[in-house]
Amino acid sequence: MFPSRRKKQGRGKTPRRSATSALRRALGDNRVRAGAIFLAGLAAVVGMFSCQEGPYRESMELTAHPARIGGQPVIRVAVKTGAVKVDLTCCSALRIKDDRDRSVFETAKAESGLQVSSTPAGWFVGGRLVGGGEYLDIEVSDGSDRGENGVRVDGVGYGKRVVLARESRLSPRFAVVAHMDIETYLAGVLAAEVPFERWHPEALKAQAVASRTYAVYHMKLRVAEPYDVDSTTMSQVYKTGYATNPIVNAAVNATRGQILTFRYRVFPAYFHSTCGGRTEDVSRVFAYNSIGPLSGTACPFCSESPFFCWTRTILKEHLAAKLRETFGSQARIGSVLSIEPIPPIGPAGRPGAFRVLHSSGELIVPATEFRLAVGAGAKDLPSVHLLEIRNRGEAIEFVGRGFGHGVGLCQYGSNALAVSGRDYRQILAFYYPGSELVKLYAM
Ligand SMILES: [Zn+2]
Question: Is residue 89 part of a domain?
Answer without folding.
Answer: yes
